[in-house]
Design a protein that fits this description.
The complex is a heteropentamer of chains A (about 200), B (about 300), C (about 190), D (about 575) and E (about 375). Chain A is an alpha/beta fold. In chain A, the strands form 2 sheets. A 3-stranded parallel β-sheet of chain A has the order 3-4-5. In chain A, strands 1-2 form a two-stranded parallel ribbon. The N and C termini of chain A lie far apart (about 55 Å). Chain B has one domain. Chain B starts with a helix and ends with a helix. Chain B is mostly helical and about 300 residues long. Chain B is globular and about 60 Å long. In chain E, the strands form 3 sheets. A 3-stranded antiparallel β-sheet of chain E has the order 1-2-3. Chain E has a 3-stranded antiparallel β-sheet with strand order 6-7-8. Chain E has about 375 residues and is α+β, with helices and mostly antiparallel strands. Classes of the chains: A alpha/beta (about 200), B mainly alpha (about 300), C alpha+beta (about 190), D mainly alpha (about 575), E alpha+beta (about 375). Chains in contact: A-B, A-C, A-D, A-E, B-D, B-E, C-E, D-E. Chains B and D meet through strand 1, helix 3, helix 4, helix 5 and helix 10 of B and helix 14, helix 15, helix 16, strand 4 and helix 19 of D. Strand 1 of chain B pairs parallel with strand 5 of chain D.
């Protein structure tokens, strides 16, 4: 079956492993560490947030995989968009995403982040998270169970370990595309209008 | 030769501190009926943050804040001898004394407070204010106990204090040890007194604005600093150590007590913890002081 | 109680929905008088909710005040009709503190103005400039179609009904082809 | 006029340094003027030279910043008169000249205050200054009644000759006078308003040098009059220790609650002086007291000049109106940082040296509760120290003006650089002043501080090496800085001051983000600090002044309007008094 | 002359101490709160608009997704409202099953509160245990309805499927396990000295204010008033089951904690009675297909006792197969605005998470 879901999967993965060639040995070492320690931002954006406590506590215990909660975006690596995303929440997610330090990843739960899910006709939720923020890993399930969230994490960790993930680079490279979409939906009141050069800034100590 | 000695001390403190922190996470996980991460998890966390692509900084004072904090922690480590009679692993303690160490412990947090202040995050400043408010409360019983110990062993040099304990101070002067333990729990930021970075209240306190390599520097210095405090407590109250093994198991026993104490109690509010620390441990310390000086000479 | 209400307010009779729930529809200017009478004489102390139902065909909003006795055994639905264009009704915040948030919700969702309520700022929607969403004339699907973009879906983006017909025809054709192939095979086997 | 004051201060500095070694001594026998048996004179003792040096340093630094203030000629004249009176106090060899200098100092300070202080603050100051002068005069007269001579040298025989009750009265009178000048808690009613309202040019001198006169007088009292070895264990030692501790602890917690910078520093200087008073109650505490008064003078000059610079540039003096000045005024930030590190007594700088000396004397003296109370007071000082530097420099600017403000003019920076240089040198070589203190102690026949080398400080019980400490600090700091710079992950500058982790929300111009005013507000919820903050000594003094005022109005009613009738009453009253006296 | 006396911080949407996705803007002097303003709307999906476009069966699927910690009162309310409008009568067995599902979901939600309350004072061990025990109930739900949190089980006119055999025995085993576990929670959390010192005297509500402002649930019972919809206006079979409404004096956080702890025992007691008296009977009334199931032109107001208080629905039909209007009135609407903003003024910053957890504020039911 060369069309439909499988084809789309290949398309998505095609641009991922395009530029792993020029990675230096330090990068591989760092990827080894990044794989073993993930800090998830403490932000329950949608209805999937009710499955976060079971995932991080005694029964499913994400800490044994090295996954721990982080209070502020400055300390976080992964932000979980758990389900549908209203405009007000999208504005805060974009704000916290931009405050996280690279390399950063987005884990999107449920079908609401793929095509609007159950609230496909709601006037206040966005239908496709990919237009506004680069998503690394989708976990399906209309509120996925803790096991599937852990499976999502492990898949994310494997991708990080192999150094294939670079969605934050994609966000910086075509920042204008993402910003245009964000402003189309949120008007001028997105995060403070940091002009693009702030992203390409590589000076500093 | 002294540079090699200092480097060895630093490396042992770094690794042992992080392994203790890994054990801490495993033991609290077992309290909570779950498996918990590998012992080296704290290594991975801090080195991962070193590897971050970039970190937000708010000017040069923000950049220097964590560096002064790390300097304070490492200086405290250098001025505390690991063993009381051997020449190696004594660091710079020959040139310093207990008063200097007590004040060096406060140098780091004050330096970091400058960085947190410049960062401009209101939560950071509130965390620092909570830390400084709790500081004088936890120092009062500790100072009374330390002063009593100094007057008993007639010297303010840590090595001589550790060496001169025929029966270790914890048994010779139990009241002083208990009072010092209360403030030691607060110093290590354990539960009833962990008001500084309470995530539920102050959005992770002073560290809320540090990302990337600053955060990893803060993590590494807290590992070194907690090991230095453990060694200081062992020298003062548990009769010092003459070998590495004895040093390790004594510090681990003390560390285990601090974890267990923290796992039972919820968090006090800042004024409550100050109120408690100024009342109960201080009275115990004063009574201990009177007993020690009356019986001492 | 029913008798006093009926002759005082000359409304349709009081409808007993369940033994703990009564409902009455009164004129717009008599509603607050009824609420305060229920509150003083019949101990309906608590205002549980203020709801509004948009009857676009009959050109009016049905505002319902739901009161409950202090021992929570009896509830009373007091309903009134107000016009849909520049809908306006006095605010109850002077007696019930919680009315402020309920009126604020209805103001945002229906555009009803509550003079006397100082805090009619936005509650759930941020920078919303279109028509209040819960009014019937606001069509959410049409709003979504011209404001947001859906995922393109798979390449074919096929319509379900056409796809079903195509598959059924395909199956029928395959069955026919298989039958024809079987007949040819039997002819060949008869042949040789 | 500004250049003249500079020259005078240089002259003073040169003069004091010449007197250091010399045994200059000048004495007159007042017999020739008809007052037989009264001998007065000036003597350049080592102790006097030390305090004169402090006076000269103080005057030199404030004359440097004089160029920035429009001061009238009368102000300068009074200033020079004050300088002369201070030298008179310090070099006096007898209590008579000492009293003359003390009285002239009080009056000239009053006149200097009259330029800036409000009427009420002026009245407060002059009432307390006169009370202190009168009780000083009373004490001297009681001493003279026994020793029949004002000279310090034979004051001790006079003191011993006094009867027990007269001794107590004498000490109480003298302590009352010096406590007022020192601003010990309870007697500091005048000090708060005068420090806050006096001109920013004069406050550094007021707090750094004038309070030292109280210390000098206390030392003279303890060393010459009451032999210092006798007092340890007596009620005098305990009153000194307790008053010193009380003032340091209470002033520290009151300081945190202040919103005005100058009031905070006023309370802080009360607390620091409390340390000195406490340590003076020890038999061998004089070394620590001298060292701490030196450090206190340098630090207070540095801090107050820094504050004067801030007020000069922003015309604001409250934490709730300042904030976020660090990157506009980086030099004054670093200088204030050096100031507060030595104020707090943190190791690498000199503040630790003086505190360490005090702690070792207390430890060897064996009074441990006082030592732990002092450690507690200095640990609790961190809160107001951080409030001082955060309120002005860190945090967020309260008004848009601060984003375009320039650095403090050079006139303010030069004295601060000199003072911080002195502090750093004393930090690296803590033993550098010990030899000179030992000459003072030998001259006063007290046992000296053990001295090994310039970099070592302390006795056999505890000593530390300043040079190793500073080099370790700098070495570790530079190593970590290099390590952080070498990392591949670059530090990206935040776009503006609103790019902070703020729970997902976006702060803007109107959001209040500066924590300056509310820092330390939570202390009132702690038991005993709440008690301290709630009631203050001013309540007591207001009560007294109300009673006096009530009594005066009653008394005024006696005057019934016609002069002659009242005159007869007064004359009758005088006659009765005379009869009773002669009987 | 600009002055900066107070500072403004957000106990905001992205904060470890917030219960759900809402924010409270606090003006502080020191750490004493001068003014608190609640901001919601982060989870607004416009439920009531979506319901107007859907038939009953379509609306049924999204109704349970309104409030995340406790979806079953929504389903029960929706089913009872539709049955009342359409005049359908359900069998005795269905009523017992519905009571069982409601009580199980109440127990799970109380465990979730236990985790939140202990987390707000830093006792993370209790939080981990409580959520692990809550998972046992979620397994039962998974077995009964197929979903851990969203069950979509109580359908207007009955329940979707019958109890699997042996289900009641497994339910009994879980209840025995809970009876043993709850005693351990008592001595590590409820009677813990540090929790008492933090909770007693914090967030005090007066009974008169409760009655006038229409506060419900633990806030009322914490002031000593026996307020419970299951007793005041009994629905389903609550009048045949015997249980009492626990109350406590004081109206502060600790009183509400004691009330919730006692309610857990009551729920277990009710569930045991349900296991004994479970009658036989068919589980589904014959319903017309969803296109032809018309709702008469009428409106009603139904109430259910959720774990946080009285959860009410206003529903109006207009003769077509689509629902004309459905308004959800959860307990948090008034608790988060009128009550929380009064309680927080004067409180300390460290009490914010404590008070919000004790009021059980769940933001999605405020803005739907």
């Amino acid at each position: 079956m060369d069309e439909g879901f499988l084809k789309e999967q290949q398309v998505m993965e095609s641009d991922l492993n395009s530029e792993t060639s020029h990675k230096s040995s330090v990068d591989f070492l760092m990827d080894w560490f990044r794989r073993r320690s993930i800090f998830v931002l403490a932000y329950g954006t949608g209805c999937g947030a009710i499955e976060m406590p079971p995932t991080f506590t005694s029964r499913y215990d994400a800490e044994r995989l090295g996954i721990r909660g982080a209070a502020t975006p400055r300390q976080a690596d992964v932000i979980i968009v758990s389900g549908y995303c209203s405009y007000k929440t999208l504005r805060r997610i974009i704000r916290t995403y931009e405050q996280m330090a690279n390399p950063k990843y987005i884990l999107a739960l449920g079908s609401c982040t793929v095509n609007g899910g159950m609230y496909w006709d709601s006037y206040n939720t966005i239908k496709r998270l990919e237009d506004y923020l680069p998503v690394d890993m989708y976990v399906n399930g209309c509120m996925p169970r803790p096991e599937s969230i852990l499976e999502g994490f492990m898949a994310l960790q494997k991708e990080i370990g192999d150094g294939k993930i670079s969605s934050w680079q994609k966000y910086e490279d075509n920042y204008a595309f993402y910003r245009k979409n964000q402003e189309a939906v949120l008007g001028q009141t997105v995060a403070p209008a940091y002009d693009a050069d702030w992203y390409l800034y590589d000076g500093g100590l | 030769m002294i540079i090699l000695d200092l480097a060895l001390m630093l490396i042992t403190a770094y690794f042992v501190g992080f392994i203790y922190y890994g054990l801490y996470r495993n033991i609290t996980a077992r309290f909570q009926r779950r498996i918990g991460p590998t012992i080296f998890q704290s290594f991975y966390d801090s080195i991962k943050f070193f590897g971050k692509k970039e970190a937000i900084s708010h000017g040069w004072m923000f950049y220097l804040g964590p560096i002064i904090m790390a300097t304070g922690a490492i200086m405290t480590l250098f001025f505390i001898p690991f063993f009381y009679q051997s020449e190696s692993f004594s660091g710079l303690s020959g040139y310093g004394n207990l008063f200097l160490v007590l004040y060096l412990m406060l140098l780091g947090p004050l330096g970091n407070a400058m960085g947190v202040g410049v960062g401009g995050n209101p939560f950071g400043v509130m965390g620092v204010t909570r830390g400084l408010t709790r500081l004088f409360a936890l120092e009062l019983p500790f100072y009374i106990a330390v002063v009593a110990i100094m007057s008993i062993s007639q010297s303010a040099d840590i090595a001589t204090i550790a060496g001169s304990q025929t029966t270790i101070n914890a048994f010779a002067h139990p009241l002083l040890f208990i009072a010092a333990l209360f403030s030691f729990v607060a110093m290590m930021g354990q539960s009833p007194f962990d008001v500084v970075g309470a995530p539920v209240e102050v959005y992770s306190g002073p560290a809320s604005e540090f990302s990337g390599k600053f955060l990893s520097l803060l993590m590494s210095q807290s590992a070194i600093f907690s090991f230095a405090k453990l060694v200081l407590m062992v020298n003062l109250f548990l009769g010092g150590a003459d070998g590495f093994f004895e040093l390790l198991w004594k510090t681990f026993v003390l560390f285990l007590f601090v974890i267990a104490f923290g796992a039972i109690y919820g968090r006090f509010k800042t004024p409550q913890s100050v109120d408690f620390l100024i009342k109960v441990p201080t009275v115990i310390a004063i009574v201990g002081l009177i007993f020690a000086t009356a019986w001492g000479n | 109680m029913f008798a006093t209400i009926k002759n005082r307010f000359a409304t349709t009779d009081i409808e007993v929905k369940r033994e703990d729930l009564y409902k009455v529809v009164v004129q717009r200017d008599a509603i607050f008088e009824l609420i305060f009478m229920l509150r003083e004489q019949y101990d309906y102390q608590t205002l549980n909710a203020i709801t509004c139902c948009d009857w676009i065909e009959e050109e009016h909003f049905a505002i319902t005040y739901i009161l409950t006795t202090s021992d929570r055994k009896q509830s009373f639905m007091v309903q009134t009709m107000i016009g849909r264009e520049d809908a306006q009704i006095d605010s109850l915040t002077h007696t019930f503190e919680q009315a402020e948030i309920m009126e604020r919700d209805l103001h945002e969702m229906y555009g009803i103005d509550f003079p006397g309520n100082q805090n009619l700022v936005e509650l759930s929607l941020e920078n919303w400039v279109h028509t209040p969403p819960l009014r019937r004339e606001f069509d959410t699907l049409e709003f979504v179609n011209n404001n947001l973009s859906f995922r393109e879906g798979r390449d074919g983006n096929m319509d379900v009904k056409k796809e079903m017909k195509r598959l059924r025809a395909l199956k029928k054709a395959q069955k026919a082809a298989a039958k024809k192939a079987k007949e040819e095979a039997s002819e060949v086997s008869d042949g040789n | 006029m500004r250049v003249l004051s500079l020259i005078i201060s240089l002259l003073a500095l040169w003069g004091v340094s010449t007197l250091f070694g010399s045994e200059a001594h000048w004495q007159i026998d007042m017999g020739s003027f008809g007052l037989e048996g009264v001998v007065i004179g000036l003597k350049a003792t080592a102790l006097a030279n030390f305090f004169a040096l402090l006076i000269a340093i103080g005057f030199f630094s404030i004359s440097l910043i004089a160029s920035k203030y429009k001061l009238s000629k009368g102000f300068y004249a009074l200033l020079y008169l004050l300088l002369v009176s201070l030298f008179l106090i310090v070099y006096a060899e007898d209590y008579l000249l000492f009293f003359v200098g003390w009285e002239v100092m009080s009056v000239t300070t009053y006149l200097l205050f009259s330029y800036d202080l409000s009427r009420e603050a002026l009245i407060k100051y002059i009432v307390f200054a006169l009370a202190s002068a009168m009780s000083l005069l009373g004490g001297i007269m009681v001493l003279y009644s026994a020793s029949h001579s004002f000279l310090y040298t034979d004051a001790h025989q006079g003191f011993i000759a006094l009867s027990a009750t007269l001794q107590v009265i004498f000490i109480l009178l003298m302590l009352f006078a010096f406590f007022i000048k020192l601003g010990v808690i309870g007697f500091h009613y005048w000090l708060m308003d005068s420090y806050e309202q006096s001109s920013d040019f004069f406050t550094p001198y007021l707090s750094a040098v004038l309070s030292k006169m109280g210390i000098y007088a206390l030392i003279i009292l303890l060393v010459y009059v009451v032999d210092i070895h006798m007092i340890s264990g007596t009620w005098l030692a305990y009153t000194l220790a307790i008053m010193g501790l009380l003032s340091s602890i209470i002033a520290t917690f009151k300081a945190v609650n202040e919103d005005s910078m100058k009031r905070l520093l006023a309370y802080s200087s009360i607390a620091q002086l409390g340390y000195i008073v406490t340590v003076l109650s020890m038999a061998d505490g004089l070394g620590g007291a001298l060292y701490h008064s030196l450090i206190h003078t340098l630090v207070k000059l540095l801090l107050f000049i820094n504050i004067a610079g801030i007020i000069y540039m922003t015309a604001r003096s409250k934490f709730s109106e300042l904030g976020g000045l660090i990157y506009r005024m980086p030099q004054s930030f670093v200088l204030l940082l050096i100031g507060i590190i030595s104020l707090a007594g943190m190791p690498p700088l000199a503040g630790f040296a003086s505190k360490f000396l005090i702690y070792t004397t207390l430890l060897e003296g064996g009074n441990l509760l006082i030592l732990s109370a002092m450690l507690f007071a200095s640990a609790s000082a961190f809160l107001y120290i951080y409030k001082l530097i955060y309120g002005i420099y860190l945090g967020h600017p309260t008004s848009k003006r601060y984003e375009t403000i320039r650095e403090v003019p050079l006139a303010f920076l030069i004295p601060q650089y000199l003072l911080s240089l002195l502090l750093i040198v004393a930090g690296v070589y803590p033993g550098i002043v010990i030899p000179y203190f030992n000459t003072i102690l030998k001259e006063l026949r007290l046992e000296t501080i053990p001295f090994e080398s310039y970099t070592i400080l302390g006795s056999e019980m505890a000593s530390y090496n300043g040079f190793v400490l500073m080099s370790a600090f700098v070495g570790v700091f530079v190593l970590i800085l290099l390590f952080m710079l070498s990392l591949r992950s670059k530090a990206k500058e935040a776009k503006d001051r609103f790019d902070i982790a703020y729970c997902g929300e976006v702060p803007d111009e109107g959001t209040h983000l500066h924590y300056g005013f509310s820092m330390g507000k939570e202390l009132k919820r702690v038991g005993f600090i709440g008690v301290i903050l709630r009631n203050s000594s001013s309540v007591f003094y207001d009560y007294i002044s109300r009673q006096l005022f009530g009594f005066a109005t009653v008394f005024r009613k006696l005057y019934s309007g016609n002069l002659s009738f009242n005159f007869n009453i007064a004359a009758l009253f005088a006659l009765i008094l005379l009869w009773w006296g002669l009987r | 002359m600009e002055t900066n006396k107070h500072i403004t911080i957000f106990h905001g949407p992205q904060h470890p101490g917030i219960t759900g996705n809402m924010s409270v803007e606090l003006d502080l002097i020191g750490e004493t709160i001068q003014k608190a303003t609640t901001h919601v709307g982060y989870l607004h999906r416009g439920f009531e608009k979506l319901v107007e476009r859907r038939t009953v069966i379509q609306a049924f699927t999204i109704v349970c997704r309104i409030c995340v910690p406790e979806p079953d009162p929504n389903e029960a309310n929706f089913a009872m409202a539709v049955e009342e409008l359409a005049g359908i009568e359900v069998s005795e067995r269905v009523k017992y099953i519905r009571v069982m599902v409601l009580e199980l979901s109440r127990l799970a939600s109380q465990c979730m509160w236990l985790a939140g309350q202990s987390g707000s004072i830093g006792l993370y061990a209790v939080g981990q245990w409580a959520i692990a025990d809550r998972d046992l109930i979620l397994d039962l739900f998974e077995e009964l309805t197929g979903g851990r949190v969203y069950h979509m089980y109580i359908y207007p006119g009955g329940v979707r499927r019958d109890l699997p055999d042996g289900f009641l025995r497994r339910l009994e085993k879980v209840l025995n396990h809970f009876k043993k576990r709850l005693k351990e929670y008592d001595n590590i959390f409820i009677n813990n000295a540090s929790f008492k010192s933090r909770a007693i005297g914090v967030g005090i509500v007066s009974p008169e204010e409760c009655i006038k402002n229409g506060y419900v649930g633990q806030v009322l019972r914490g002031c000593g008033i026996e307020a419970d919809v299951r007793k005041d206006a009994p629905y389903l079979v609550y009048d045949q089951l015997d249980f009492e409404v626990p109350t406590a004096q004081g109206g502060d956080v600790y009183a509400r904690a004691l009330v919730r702890r006692a309610e857990m025992d009551q729920s277990i007691h009710i569930l045991e009675q349900v296991i004994d008296k479970m009658p036989e009977g068919e589980i589904m009334v014959k319903m017309p297909t969803h296109r032809k199931f018309k709702l008469p032109k009428n409106d009603t107001w139904v109430k259910v006792e959720s774990s946080r208080g009285e959860f009410a629905y206003y529903m109006a039909g207009d003769g077509s197969e689509k629902i004309r209007r459905m308004q959800v009135r959860g307990p948090s609407l008034v608790h988060a605005f009128t009550l929380l903003e009064d309680l927080l003024v004067g409180a300390e910053l460290s009490d914010v998470a404590l008070i919000m957890n004790s009021l059980g504020i769940c933001p999605p039911e405020i803005e739907r």
